[in-house]
Design goal:
This protein is α+β, with helices and mostly antiparallel strands. It contains 7 helices and 9 strands.
Length: 270
């Protein structure tokens, strides 16, 4: 089965995945999970998009913005830095911070695939989430994810099914930074790319996605979910999603039985 399984593009819905709220950090206001500089960056982005700050003009000074929004100059500086990294603003010493664009350009760096390829791979497929829980990772799992021990993650497990196929294509374990978990509303069934949904709901922007591919075998639990034979060969694709400042926000581990998937890359000569 080729990776680019295509089918009609329908919306994602049929209810939300229930997250065990008792495992989440206490939150009186979901926005409190968002750093203040990201809140301010979102506010400034809105002001740019509604032409309060027009393209080609200068933003108010750090001192003026700090007074206007009741935050520190350091928070203003970090918010501006966030929008500069997204390509919305540019700064020149002695002149100020200029508004360059209303929309951030898509600037992804992949080890193998392009953003378009990642989106096309999931066309005509649907994720069906089986469980959701908060976990503090350590040991081998922390090493696999590439994070420090005891960091809290929202762990989602899911199958992905191609339209018209009886057996699932893959088993997926997803880990999302627990600090942004309160901002997410994950549908039980999802057709668009999950990373796009996380970007939209969290306010984070993924600027780098690293992909690793290795051979593995199906565990009994995976084989049961996939309708396959325990111990049979499979391909494991791990993707790490980094936001600005190279902060690891999400990790997905996709396990695909070898009889349902192959990986193909076209190589052109120079």
């Amino acid at each position: 089965m080729a990776t680019k399984a295509r089918g009609p593009s329908r919306g994602s819905v049929k209810g939300l995945l229930a997250i065990d709220q008792s495992d989440l950090p206490p939150q009186s206001d979901p926005r409190s999970a968002t750093p203040r500089y990201l809140q301010l960056a979102h506010t400034l982005l809105g002001a740019i998009q509604d032409n309060t700050h027009k393209v080609g003009t200068l933003l108010p000074t750090e001192v003026e913005l700090a007074a206007q929004y009741g935050v520190s100059r350091q928070t203003v500086r970090q918010a501006i830095g966030q929008l500069r990294q997204q390509g919305l603003l540019s700064a020149r010493k002695g002149v100020g911070t200029r508004v360059d664009s209303k929309q951030p350009p898509r600037r992804f760096s992949y080890s193998a695939l392009s953003e378009t390829d990642l989106v096309e791979i999931v066309e005509g497929t649907e994720m069906s989430f089986q469980s959701s829980k908060m976990v503090a990772v350590r040991g081998a799992l922390a090493a696999q994810l590439g994070c420090r021990a005891n960091h809290r993650w929202l762990h989602l497990s899911s199958t992905r099914r191609v339209d018209g196929e009886n057996l699932p294509l893959s088993w997926i374990n997803v880990y999302i930074d627990g600090r942004i978990a309160p901002r997410l509303k994950i549908p039980k069934l999802l057709r668009p790319a999950l990373f796009r949904l996380v970007e939209q709901q969290s306010g984070e922007t993924f600027i780098e996605i690293l992909q690793e591919i290795r051979a593995t075998v199906l565990t009994p639990a995976m084989a049961k979910q996939l309708g396959s034979v325990p111990g049979s060969t499979a391909l494991e694709i791990t993707r790490r999603y980094f936001s600005t400042g190279r902060r690891l926000i999400m990790v997905s581990v996709n396990t695909l039985p070898s009889d349902r998937f192959f990986y193909s890359v076209a190589i052109s000569r120079d």
